[in-house]
Amino acid sequence: MKARFLLGALLLLVCSLTGCSDDENGNTPDVTPFSLEKTYYEVRLGPLSTHINITNGSGDISLAIANEAIIEAARVQNEGEDVFVSLYGKRKGNTTLTLTDNVTGDKETVEVKVTDCYLAYGIAGSNHPALASNLMLYLVNNEARDCYFFTMDYMEHQLNNTPLAKGTYEFFVRQEGEKKTPYLRLNYPADESGNLAQDAPMEAHDFALLFNDSQRVLDIIRTYLDVDWEELISNPMTRDLPPVDLTMKMTVPGTDYEITGALATAPIPEGILD
């Protein structure tokens, strides 16, 4: 009995010494290999960032940007210990970003494309023939003032990758008696019934704008689309080159058409913008 006791004590001592040796040598628990699900990302110009989520590896990531004039990248770890990389667009163009796991040594290189800034408008309810419910409009802050119209793929619960139609837009302010009303003019292809039709001729459609929180919505439009509201309001009918309530209603004067939606920063499907 005494021999068994001494043998057990000896084994315990050996295990303890082995554990201490591992700690002193700085050995770390096993981590999963580092890899990314995507190797291509798009980032818009402006204040909004695009995230690369880090879901494996050690989370200890270093970054190397091929062209720092195009993007800015930073590793972020939130309070929940989730790690991601924030990408900010500095100017339009393409570059690569190499992410290295400093523990596993694994590397991933992703291509990053910086596009024009843009703003989304998601339609929640509508009786308009072209701008129907669940349609998503993307207003692009470029010289052409491009506008894209996307429908939902209900099977995949996401936007279709190809736009239903493409047009242009502009904001202006119209003097109506003592009142100055902001308008959005959409130029899009429409058939004889007023429905969106890719091969139909372009038509201009003016929509008066109503807001639940006008100051906030106007600020968002100014920030993302560079709309000079002060200039438009001081000179009615001049045109600009093209938890808060971001609801924006659009009506067609002289008709009962009413469209209700909200501004959003949802990303446009990849591969659409230059």
TrEMBL record:
Signal peptide positions on this chain: 1-21
Keywords of this entry: Signal
Domain of life: Bacteria
Protein name listed in UniProt: Lipoprotein
Lineage: Bacteria, Pseudomonadati, Bacteroidota, Bacteroidia, Bacteroidales
